[in-house]
Design brief:
With 299 residues, the protein is of the alpha/beta class. It has one domain (2-288): 3-Layer(aba) Sandwich (Rossmann fold), CATH 3.40.50.1110. Helix content is 36%, strand content 7%. The chain has 8 helices and 5 strands. It has helices at 42-48, 82-95, 116-122, 128-148, 166-169, 173-200, 211-220, 272-288, and strands spanning 2-5, 58-59, 109-113, 153-157, 205-209. The chain has a 5-stranded parallel beta sheet, with helices on both faces. Strand 1, helix 1 (42-48) and strand 2 form a beta-alpha-beta unit. Helix 4 (128-148) runs parallel beside helix 6. The longest helix has 28 residues, at 173-200. The radius of gyration is 18 Å and the shape is globular. It starts with a strand and ends in an 11-residue tail after the last helix. 43% of the residues are buried. This is Carbohydrate esterase family 16 protein. Keywords: Hydrolase. One of its GO terms (molecular function) is hydrolase activity, acting on ester bonds. Pfam families: Lipase_GDSL.
Length: 299
């Protein structure tokens, strides 16, 4: 599996470090890597736990990424956009020469989970519709580049309702409503792009996973899934936990409950239990062979 995305996805893989191998399917750094979940994230869980067969993963995702930094600026200029992940890392190192890692088209999955920062950084702009039109043209073009390099199996994740995050809620009801509307539009465009990719290239298999739906479901009812049932707090976070803790299960009295019983680690990122459930649900989608996880809330 090759993976592209942002902080919800990154494990801080370094292309100059150890590559995935039978002894170490994630390559580098040591499991679970440097994630935003205070533990393993969905890529970790999918690679090592919720898979029917052995799998190796090259995770090129980078925290803070947008599709293209020139269109929607990330929080720092050093952040690698999905465009840079593909053009500066994947294509020269893994596609064109394959000098780092050998793979085959028929048994390799290309996963892309992006949009949280595109939406979050641009939904309030007066020319947002123009910006997003350019973003979608770029995104579709990048997927074509992957196809031309040999990619035939694609997985896309929809943007979750981060309008319900402590970060957006602190900005007020107006911001929450506008971001929610923008997320719905983003996911509708993603659905269209995925369908068009499969229609244009009949030799592809395109999976679309509705992360938006299950994310919202857990926020509403944590026990909708066994892995997330321990969540006691789904609305706020404890500042003593927000930068990570020594253990996945650390308990500090001032926080009331252990860190893994908070849905939100900080103002934007969920803790590892959600990622575990997400990986299991993605595995079920891939296993049953149905390419669309439905129903979508905008259908």
């Amino acid at each position: 599996m090759f993976v592209f995305g942002d902080s919800y996805t990154t494990t801080s893989f370094n292309v100059t470090g150890a590559q995935p191998s039978h002894a170490n399917p994630l390559g580098n750094p040591s499991f679970p890597g440097y994630t935003s979940s205070n533990g393993p994230n969905w890529v970790d869980f999918l690679t090592l736990h919720h898979n029917k067969t052995y799998m190796e993963t090259v995770n090129l995702a980078y925290g803070g990424a947008t599709v293209d930094s020139a269109l929607v600026a990330p929080y720092l200029p050093t952040v690698l956009s999905v465009k840079e992940q593909i053009e500066n890392q994947y294509l020269p190192l893994y596609a064109d020469e394959r000098k780092h890692y050998s793979w085959q088209s028929d048994n390799t999955l290309f996963a892309s989970f992006i949009g949280i920062n595109d939406v979050g950084n641009a939904y309030g702009e007066t020319n947002a519709s123009i910006i997003f039109a350019d973003v979608w043209a770029e995104y579709a073009g990048l997927m074509e580049r992957l196809y031309e390099s040999g990619a035939r199996n694609f997985l896309f994740l929809t943007v979750p309702p981060v309008n319900r995050s402590p970060l957006t809620k602190a900005a007020g009801a107006s911001a929450e409503g506008l971001e929610a509307k923008t997320i719905v539009a983003w996911n509708a465009n993603l659905t269209s792009m995925a369908a068009a990719l499969q229609a244009r290239h009949r030799d592809t298999t395109v999976f679309l996973f509705d992360f938006h739906r299950i994310f919202g479901r857990v926020l509403d009812a944590p026990c909708s899934f066994s892995q997330t049932c321990p969540y006691k707090n789904t609305t706020s976070y404890c500042t003593s936990y927000e930068n990570g803790t020594p253990s996945w299960y650390t308990f500090l009295p001032e926080c009331g409950v252990p860190v893994d019983e908070y849905f939100w680690l900080n103002s934007l990122h969920p803790t590892f239990r959600l990622h575990n459930m997400t990986a299991e649900q993605i595995s079920e989608l891939l296993t049953r062979g149905s390419t669309w996880s439905t129903p979508f809330p905008w259908s």
